[in-house]
Amino acid sequence: MLKNISCFNSEIIIINYILSKFKYSKEIMNLLNKDDFFFEITKKSFLEKKIFLNFNIFNEKNIFSIFKNIIEKSKKRKILKILFNISFDLLYNENIDKKIFLKVKKILNFNNKKIIYKLDYFKLLKNFLFSKNELLFSGYNKLDYLINGFQQGDLIILAGRPSIGKTSFAINIVKNLIFLKKNIIIFSLEMSTLQIFIKLLSIMTEINQNNFKLNNFSEYDLKKISFIIKNINFNNLIINDCSSLSSNDIENYLNVFSKEKKIDLILIDYIQLMKSNLNINNRVLELSEISRSLKLIAKNFSCVIIALSQLNRLVEYRVDKFPVLSDLKDSGSLEQDADIVIFLYKNNFKNINILISKNRNGPLGQIEFLFKNEYTKFNQI
């Protein structure tokens, strides 16, 4: 008899689908609530957003059939509950209470079906063209011209060999966005919070980083530091130095912080040090899962993710040291999932070239930067 008002397998499948963030996960999630689930374990999983198992493939036709099945059984349970209350009132009350008619009206209202509407593509285009959502600009005119700014939902891979200046270039972009009062989270798996903040201050004030380490400042240096601290709001910047990081950890952080304010940029230093949510003894597959998860997070939270990446050693054996997409370390999925891939490589001791090797939103190209090593500042040439 219970099978007519509940289905455990359907509830498990639909929970895994909506929490795995597939094509229609968000739409189905918005159409469900905890009362649509009969079993306590599935109801708890829905409320706590916990996945039973990770499924990689779902048949969309079956999903909509399962979703319809859950909604129909949920309606049956709600109707039974109201009918039981009406029966109880009629049996134990001498007079007919007016509330009974309200309950009957509730049953009639169940005839209104929940519908997943088809998209109006022209309306979607109109909303995009006239929306007030601003692009996120790096602060470097030539770079912004090439990539047309960072767009919400973008996953950007910033790659280069060790000690080329990946972290420094990323923090230069963070510095520019802080001046624009953007909300930023930095996840660092290599450097401490203090090291990153000192690097940021050094770039802003153009004070040699060794002066911070030795606590050796001139009077002019102290005035510059004092001016920055008084006039720049660092409350929009969150630096999290962590020894371990997964895409689930990032999502949990965003679920907390996005309630207070919208996060514009997430910086991850660096992607090869992240751990997978799955227990796979294959680093290539793990990194594929990580990159795909980061892309989904960027889309779902409408933010930009910049993930730093190492290059494999093959680039060192080339005469020109010119990086290509296949040089991305440990995975071919990085170049596939990324919207933009940026390489850093040295032209000479002072200059560093920024190479746009993949760009879904614009052309490819190359920009030359002057690198001031003493305070790791990048200036556009």
Automatic annotation (TrEMBL):
The keyword Cell membrane does not apply. The keyword Hydrolase applies. SUPFAM superfamilies: P-loop containing nucleoside triphosphate hydrolases (SSF52540). InterPro entries: DNA_helicase_DnaB-like_C, P-loop_NTPase. GO terms for molecular function: ATP binding; DNA helicase activity. It holds the Pfam family DnaB_C. GO terms for biological process: DNA replication. Keywords: ATP-binding, Helicase, Hydrolase, Nucleotide-binding. Residues 129-381 form the SF4 helicase domain. GO terms for cellular component: cytosol. PANTHER family: REPLICATIVE DNA HELICASE, REPLICATIVE DNA HELICASE DNAB. This is Putative replicative DNA helicase. The gene is dnaB.
